[in-house]
Fold these 2 entries.
Entry 1:
Amino acid sequence: MMELRRAWLRWLSRHPSLRAWSVMFPGAWWLLVFFMVPLGFMFAYSFMERNVYGGVEAGFTIEHYARFADPLYMKILVRTVVYALGCTVASLLMGYPVAYAISRSGPWKNLLVFLVILPFWTSFLVRTFAMIFLMRDTGLINTTLMGMGLITEPIEMLGTPAAVMAGLVYGFLPFMVLPIYSSLEKLDPSLLEAAEVLGAKPAARFFRVVLPLSMPGVVAGSLLVFIPALGSFLTSDLLGGAKEIMIGNLVQNQFTSARNWPFGSAASFVVMGVVLLAVFAYLRSRDDDALAGA
Amino acid sequence: MAGRLPRWLVAITVAVYAFLHAPLLVLVVFSFNDSKFSAAWEGFTFQWYARLLERDDILDSLWVSLEVGLISTVVSTLLGTLLALGLARHRFRGRAAMESLLYVPIVTPEIVCGISLLIFFMFLKNVLHIPVVLGVPTIIIAHVAFNISFVTVVVRSRLEGMDRNLEEAAMILGADEFTAFWRVTVPQLWPGILSGALLAFTMSFDDYVITSLVTGPGSSTLPIVVYGMVRKNIEPSINAISTIILVVTALLIYASDRLSKPTALKP
């Protein structure tokens, strides 16, 4: 037994690539078979003909992608990108000050970081329901306002763009705070002292020293918010309803009630395309940073 | 230090923390509200919790969720940890391909992942006539597929912060690679593996979007039942079940935090 074990180790040490792959094989296999291959199927389906019973007919067409030129679908695509960008900007405006405050909060730091991480571990469905509970007609906001006599009719909040935006920001804001905080944390305080000694005012110290040095965090946080917002389904489904559908809802709809699998597949790859663009933009900016740093 | 922050910055920070946490606090408080339709406080009650116990679908779905969560966590933690070891410790051909394979699931929207798996399972069933039944097994396959990468990222970051000298020392002292791995690497890596597993379990336990697409009749997980309740949108029982989910998650995080601390070698 020992002999066999030694022989095996000797053989592996002569073949480093094989050794690595023998460890990684099960995981790589799973990702390949149950992630990449299904995506491949979906890509192929997006070029096939529709079968009204669900499924596809053999053939090749780009009509499903061409349908995005239709104003109806163009509108959904544009709305999705606008919401995702809006959510990213809003999260940045809210998240940056918070990240900055945490990095300067001394003994409170750990607690404050924990409180930002906590929602991330909390059920997304429950958090979305919390938003509904506040915003529905019989929800806390309307009940309170009516109780105070400020309004007589409930304000209709669910199903509006504002509700979807609020839900998206509520859902993804923590992803913005953490990377910005970690880049601010690495910032060398002596740089700020140097700027102060050299006569920079607080605003100048922030805009010319702190902000540029925290840009990697800002860019990473923006990507971490933008991607899930772009592909979000639950938020727009539960808070937006039929009027505010995003592309994730369009995709789901094609596979359930509309029974147009190829169009749903094409819509999925439109989302994937935007996601990949964002990722490439991120990698480019990171490489530029690395070059600038060197 | 805290005193040096401008007042407006403190105000924004407090407001953002309130925005993040107040909705959940409100949800918890109103799970004890003795009123069926209104969000006005009308007295304290446990009746919404009692109501949960009468619903068999909730208890059944809880068991399905636990089964799916535990199995998919064990499998994805094992596979993900092995991937992390390969990536962090070995030089090999095809690294760029492996790295891309690892990051695709992280950037792919859930809905896209779920739909593509549905297409794949339906293809196996209808075209290749493999008897795939949508249900617990397909949910587990899907959950492992989206969890592996996250486990790998977590474990790998721990591995990269570890001291390789300890393993080399063990091997110089006569341990072979297997022994060094089990007696030196794994104990050090344990906190990383645990946090990877916890992440996998929470993501599995919480997932609605992918599960709803690859599930079949009779195998609903807890989020699927909760989604149905949220859709109907009436009973405060949702507040009660939400509160339970929140409390259990908080306990889990606390426990993992306590578990991972004593084994850490460095402060």
Note: The mean pLDDT of chain A is 86.
Entry 2:
Amino acid sequence: MDSTKLGIVCVSDAREPLQMAAMIASVAAVSGRPVLVLVAMNALRHFVREARPRAPAQGRAGEILEEKHVTDFQALFAHAIELGGARIHPCSMAMDVLGLARDDLDANLGEPMGLMQFLDEAAGGQLLSF
Amino acid sequence: MADRKLIDARGSFCPGPLMELIAAMKMVPVGDELEVLSSDRGSASEIPQWLKKAGHEHLGTSEEGGVWHIRVRRAR
């Protein structure tokens, strides 16, 4: 199996990029690759427990994902964690900007992570951003 | 002969059928057979690739009326 580390940074709040990020995270994780996801900027708003916004589609594909009730990105990220051992962390800076505490966020997220730690842990692997 | 557990993933899009298979595989003992029903064309090729990577057996795939039947055996 390919064991190359995969780092993913999510910043968009739109359905299309977040869906793609979650698809890649889940498939890579269940294929045995160490996956580390940093959820930052507006993407973090989708991981707030009580005030989850509707993700704007962004394009036609995103609209079709909604129309066909395709499994959403939160569920795919959960698969990445539960079935593949992926680690998904909220960006500490985004939490500060958005005024969020750890308890405001989904329980399956890891502890807040800063860029220094993320870059250290992702070093030497592939890095994707959405 | 081992029982074959059926996973009906029709209507689910990639990588949904794969995730459903992996979740089901964790629940059955080594040696058991599973069959995934999928209406997603991409999953018909993705699942055998994952099986090869993960060291499980792909027993065969057939297609009937737009539904792929992917038969696998948990090998480890």
Note: Residues 43 and 125 of chain A are 22 Å apart (CA to CA).
